[in-house]
Amino acid sequence: MNPAPITPVVEDENRPITEEARVSAADLILMADRIHTMAGSTAPTAIAIAGGVIVALGDRADVRDWRGPGTEIIDLGPATITPGLVDGHFHPVMGIGLTRGVDLSGARTLEGLKAALKAAAVTPGGWIEGWGLDPNAFDGAPITHAPLVEAAGPDVPVFLLLFDGHSALVSPRALELAGITGPRDFPSGAGVVCGADGRPTGHLLEFDAYHLVRRLLPADEPAARRKRLRDLLDRMAATGLTAADAMDFEEDSLELFRALEDEGDLPVRWRCAPFVMPGAGADGLDDVIARQRLTGRRWRVEGAKFMIDGTVDGGTAWLDEPDTHGESTACLWPDPAEYAAAAHRLAGHGVPIVTHAIGDAGIRYVLDTYAGLPRTRAPHRIEHLETMPSELIGRFAELDVTAGMQPTHCTHYTRADHSDNWSTRLGKRRADRAFRARDLRDRGARLTLGSDWPIAPFDPRAIIAAARLRRPAGHADIEPVLPEQALTAEMALEGYTTEAAAAAGRSGRLVPGQRADLTVFGLDPLTADPDEFAESPIPLTIVDGTVAHRSQ
Question: Long-range contact list for 321-325, CB < 8 A, 24+ apart?
Fold first, then answer.
């Protein structure tokens, strides 16, 4: 194989090649038995990087022509190099605030929940906090604060975020402190769940409702938040992630990203989409437009994040027909036309639109809205897509709309026999048309994969495996959920590489001129058994041609 010339072409994200990339020697050369360029049938075993971009591909024998006195050369032996992995849906700053206290994701029963709360530490303000609670722990019974009182007593304020991030369970003392004594009206689809006696059960649906309690929690110190975010980014890089789409840019996001970049380069690059909530108004939309100019070395704001509905588990999705509880019939926006008008205004200013849409009615409305939007540099996209009829599948390719899905939402929180809370609320017909990843790909849709952290763990190896298995990796005893929707190994890898890059208007392939974001696996993601691949070592993660993670 003849090596490509060292002088590269211009990279595809409006970033000119730097003078450093025009030198005659590479900064970094990697060699490995397999390099999946995702660009065709060529099979190089060496890759040269200069000035943060790929400048040559070839064989190990070509390395002598690329090296200079300052070149670092790493031979990774039998490892596999791929384009850098991109998580298509992440909440970094919001997530470090929501994942405080005890991790309840392992609580599968009420007894497990109570045991975890009894062992939980109390904050300096006297609260017990927790996150990741799966409603399936209630085994179909109403979600109430009774187990919180049993575990912590009547006088301790408790705030527990449910796994979906759209609802919370709080104790009677927390309700008292927040002044919540009965139902509340909110402009969005939020609500305070009350029993037959009109008294709150402790179950708070959607942000507007649970924020009444969450705002009372002790605040994190800025230094502690910086440390938690830096630790999160380091852990992401250690799993092979080189980039992620942040589906928010609220609170202190700007201050945190700038503070971390003052300390050094971020180990993961970010593309951020600020929230647009009902009632944002002209001033709120103007602010989102203005924030599109914000950027750093490895982060930028590009896009706007909407939600057209809530969740199936909370009864706040937007379905064509009510769920089995008679709920999930309304749009999150009191007037859906206001959502459409806001999306049109932003798209008219070149802002890509991202919309959370769970239910069939919500997905249909968003697709109808997108059909009339101006095109933007990066395509508009819809996230989650939990249940939808076949007639909507082909519209994604027709409208050039990116589909964003999170495979572990299916494999971690639903069951093949439909006995889980999500499936029983939908009923068999709608649960049978759920998480249709393969149907979308087979009909030509662009499909990007991700975690939605902190809603589910972010390790891309386990998510790629789950996309293929339709069950959690390492659990061969669990029956797959709708196995006909499984992705091939290549499709799953594309969902974290080329498909994710295309969703941002880039190539994502390992070819000269492209930015040097690379992931190195101990196992080949295209040939390894998916259960084994979920445990694959990550020897090296490269961002902008520099080492973001190196295993010891």
Answer: 323/425, 323/426, 323/427, 324/424, 324/425, 324/426, 324/427, 325/425
* Cis preceding linkage at 460, omega within 30: no
Count Cβ neighbours within 10 Å for each residue of 500-509 and write b for 16 or more, e otherwise: bbbbbbbbbb
Give how far Cα 92 sits from Cα of 87, 377, 447, Å.
11, 24, 22
Sheet containing 28-31: give its strands across. Answer: 53-58, 46-50, 28-31, 72-75
Buried b (16+ CB within 10 A) or exposed e, 65-90: ebeeeebeebebeebbbbbbbbbbbb
Per-residue pLDDT, 240: 98
Taking alpha carbons only, the member of 380, 365, 435 closest to residue 406 is 435
Tokens coding 513: 């001129």
Hunting for tokens 């309840």 — which residue is that? 104
Give the Cα separation of 434 and 439 in Å (integer): 10
Place of tokens 């929690």: 217
Q: pLDDT tens digit string along 120-159?
A: 999 888 999 999 999 999 988 999 999 999 999 999 999 9
CA distance 324 to 335: 25
Which amino acid, residue 61?
A
CB atoms within 10 A of CB 321: 13
CB atoms within 10 A of CB 211: 15
Contacts with 290 (C-beta within 8 Å, 6 or more apart), sequence order: none
Q: What is the pLDDT of residues 269-290, one digit of tens each?
A: 999 999 999 999 999 999 999 9
* Cα within 13 Å of Cα(218), Cβ side: 15
List alpha helices for 137-240, DSSP H.
146-152, 172-178, 206-214, 222-238
Query: What distance in Å separates the CA atoms of residue 492 and residue 494, rounded to the nearest whole number?
Result: 5
Surface-to-core class of residue 185, CB atoms within 10 Å of its CB (0-12 exposed, 13-18 middle, 19+ buried): exposed
